[in-house]
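Troubleshooting: if your tokenizer reports a length mismatch, compare against these two reference records.
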Amino acid sequence: MSKNRATYSLTLSSPLGSLTVTATTAAVVKLDWGGRGAQKASWAADIDTPPEAGALLAEAARQLEVYFTDGRFRFDLPLEPAGTDFQRAVWDFMLAIPAGRTRSYGEAATAIGSGPVDSRAVGSACGANPIPVIIPCHRILAAGGDAGGYSGKGGLDTKRWLLRHEGAYVPSEQVSLF
């Protein structure tokens, strides 16, 4: 993504609190967490938002609303997360994990060709994910099925909520490293 491209944002409510989606006229580039609280989704784009970005933001909001209604929903949005080649490979791996399923940090490392020894690097890429929920970093667990970590608002509670919402295995309260 070019650093000089204009971005536009839209904030909406979700069961996890407010979320702010940021996009260019071509792709979603970021999703930021707000506060927690069970609220009905509502949104409105900034008046200066070009029609292309407004339509993309409205579609992202619609898809997030459907996801929060049906955790098995699969997102279909153009995405342009800023990151290294390694991070983008990890995020592509996460995008291929179906809702309701999980994979381990080691499985991700092996799948992208870096070997299980790089599971900590996968954890770092998960933590750097600029588009959580849509790029489902919550579906990556530590070895043995423990939660591992989660950098999103609410930490592991949010990770467990998302997994439970999708009907996936939900790790215990015990936290382990990668």
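Reference record two:
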Amino acid sequence: MAGITRKNLMYVSVLLTAAFLLGYFTNPFNTSLDHWRPPCTCCDRRLTTDTITPLRDNRTFIIAPYFEHRIQDKRAVRILSIIHHKEVKELYCWFCCTVNKYVMVSQAQIDILRHRFGFPYGATNLVCMEPPGCYAKYLSVHTSPTGNMTQLPLFQIQNQDMRPFSANFTVCISTMFGNYSNVLQFIQTMEMYRILGAQRVMIYLNNCSPQVGKVIQYYIAEGIVEVIPWPIQQYLRTSRKWNYFMDAKDIGYYGQVTALNDCIYRNMYRSKFVLLNDIDEIILPIKYQTWDSLMESLQQQNPGVGVFLFLNHVFPQTVTTDGNFSNISSWKSLPGTNILQHVHREPRRPGYLYNEKMIVDPRKVYQTSVHNVLNSTGGSKVVPAKTALLYHCRDPRQNLSDTSLIEDKTIWRYNASLIRNINKALSQVDLQS
């Protein structure tokens, strides 16, 4: 050491520092990731708050990124999106690493859900592996591994923390569109959800009538409804049909499959169970009074099962029954259907597709469609109609005489509390102006 001067030590220090920095910038963790970027302030930008964010290619639309805890020994992020199934070949995740604000880039695995029903655009999972030691809270998605990150949208990675559930049951109502105006049935369904045990109803809202809008605001103030804006028609030609050959547009049912998947991931660590159904549908217990007692029994009988399918029973709006209920005079001025008048259901035809709906454990679901789960763990179980059924009040599916229908007054078990709750809601919502 006596032969090494202070000046030589300074040179050695500079060389070692340069070598370290060169190695850090190229690949500090010795991984096979494609691209790295030096520290920058590009992650100190305003986060994207839109529900649907187009990329510059106008073929890719990002919904939201979610941390994927279920991939063992990896830090993975699943980005829910809508993409063109032919024209998008490569996408990249640009991670904003917590460590020294480095930007690290990895290529996304593109997984288009198989239930696209012929439309050119479909719900898609982009799966990116986070670089080791990165611990990102934010990311961007780009069509290239190179470019200027300050010009890319910046998203917060959700679901990083697993907290105690804030709800036992969350209902997902996807893609409310077509200027939805069935005020009375909407209020009745909302109150039935509350009676049965829902603590949260999430509505992916495209548009509705002003009266329905006022009712939705009431339930938001009550703390039960969360609205996710869903302006998908601003970006894609949307169809009201489920199949491309019925209506050749860009995407079916206003992107319903994407909305349902997003609702599952939004509630994965917020809700014990998630219900996937439409606003004219109610999963109605037969043997039990509430969803709590229903699901407790179903889980005891089917340990490990994560998906429960409920048989769809159509209650035609064309057949009415007067139950002689009192205290419903204020309902007469409301547009829409009174579900208490519809207590006759169509018999189910063997071998006919009836489109069941579901209650799922969201932590066991990776991908879902509208009427069945596409990728899950734990398997699924069809619930017998004697245990519970899907009450679906809608236009008739079959051309039947009234005498061919089956009387089913199960919903009348709830009439006292239902009428009381509806009248309370109506007293607090001004639907006349």
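Descriptive notes for reference record two:
- Residues 6-34 have pLDDT under 50 and may be disordered.
- The radius of gyration is 26 Å.
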